[in-house]
Amino acid sequence: MESMIRDIKLAPSGHDKIAWVKNFMPVLNHIDEEYSKTKPFAGKKMVITMHLEAKTAYLGLVFMHAGAELAITGSNPLSTQDDVAAALVEEGAKVFAWHGCSDEEYDTFINKALDTQPDIIIDDGGDLVAHLHGDRKELAKNIIGGSEETTTGVIRLKALAEAGKLNFPMIAANDAYCKYLFDNRYGTGQSTWDGIMRTTNLVIAGKNVVISGYGWCGKGAAMRAKGLGAKVIITEIDPIKAVEAVFDGFRVMPMDEAAKIGDIFLTLTGCKDVIRKEHFAVMKDGAMMANSGHFDVEINKIDLMAGAVSKRPVRKNIEEYKQKDGRKLYLLAEGRLVNLAAGDGHPAEIMDLSFGVQFFSALHILNNHQNMDNSVHLMPDEINMELANIKLASLDIAID
Ligand code: NAI
Q1: Are residues 311 and 298 in the same domain?
Q2: In a domain, 130, yes or no
Q3: Rounded CA separation 391/177 (Å)
Q4: Residue 170 and residue 138 share a domain
Q5: Does 334 share its domain with 216?
Q6: How far is the CA of 39 from the centre of ligand 1 (A)?
């Protein structure tokens, strides 16, 4: 089957990007060296649906070196990097993705990848699994299991499992210590601000930054905003997280209040309609909004448009919504995860651990699927310890 990508001639810069991240991914390098010899995935077909940039491409290559036959798609229309996709094709993967694909194309790409009839899947956000429980459920019987990268996908998986409808075992890679403690917190914390800063080219210091959600991602984003000199306000729905935010030194208030004060709004909740009509109505002229949660549903774009007289791009990845009363509100990266849609995602050193978790989760499925029921499993804890030890060794840090 032919790959579907934007342009194979873009491959050279994709190869350069992959080579760059390899320099900072000692855990994956270690795994690559070891498992390219033993090839545990030989004869197995794998589909990965993930943000298709250089770190993900390297994970894909590590699986291929370990014997897997790989088909890969993006997990968001704006996070695919076309040069990286082209480089992966040259490396022998089947790739179905391009940057800025329509919703229909996005579905087509997942279906094309599934046409390869995978044995193992790796999902990010739950769209691949949704297809395997919907229009492609006939393929589910071939699948020995898989793993899921992010909080939103894990929530969707647990809902399926609780309804008794999950068709194969899945590992919640997101819920491994070596994933969420570093990726969600420090990865999202840094890369979200990288995305916002490179997109706006504005100063963060002195601004009122409203962060919705004080979970793992929100904590990281708030910590880094504070370090950049912002005046940080947290909105939450969970009283315990709200108390935590207070003791971490932040102001906490409802969005109804925060909406009037904020200069920059950032959603990281995994929840719908966090910023909506009544909030847009009271925002200051020039207020900016971005989302780093998995789906583009946290800032209600339909409400935003309904209150606007015009919408126009004013800079790459920034749209101005001019309100009926003349105020201008700005939305970054169409409300899609700003760190990936307007940046390169998490730093390589962080994804090194997350993708170590992904590799060992897939290996665990490969070796143990016969004894795993169709529910959501945790990666065994000893693997967290092993990954942390490899990371420490790569940093030349010893412990007692
Ligand atoms: P989490 O479950 O640790 O935290 C979410 C927080 O949002 C919770 O404290 C919850 O009480 C709060 N919340 C829910 N609805 C709210 C509302 N309406 N207003 C205010 N607060 C609300 O989840 P985590 O791990 O922080 O992930 C958050 C989102 O970010 C998920 O969609 C996840 O998939 C995504 N994610 C994105 C990444 C990226 O690269 N941009 C990386 C990792 C996760």
Answers
A1: yes
A2: yes
A3: 13
A4: yes
A5: yes
A6: 36
pLDDT at 290: 98
- Is 79 near ligand 1, meaning CB less than 6 Å away? no
Domain boundary among 341, 360, 375: 341
Q: Is the CB of 241 under 6 A from ligand 1?
A: yes
Same domain, residue pair 256 and 304: yes
pLDDT of residue 329: 98
293 CA to centre of ligand 1 in angstroms: 6
The yes-or-no verdict on residue 1 having pLDDT over 90 is: no
User: How far away, in angstroms, is 152 Cα from ligand 1 center?
Assistant: 8
CA nearest 85: which of 94, 121, 124?
94
| Domain tally, the chain | 2
Q: Is 217 annotated as a binding residue?
A: yes
**pLDDT score of 4:** 97
Structural domain range at position 320: 185-341
| Domain containing residue 148: CATH number | 3.40.50.1480
Q: Which residue's alpha carbon is nearest to atom 31 within ligand 1? A: 270
Task: Tell me which residue has tokens 């491959």.
Answer: 11
Of ligand 1's listed atoms, the one at least distance from the Cα of 219 is: 26
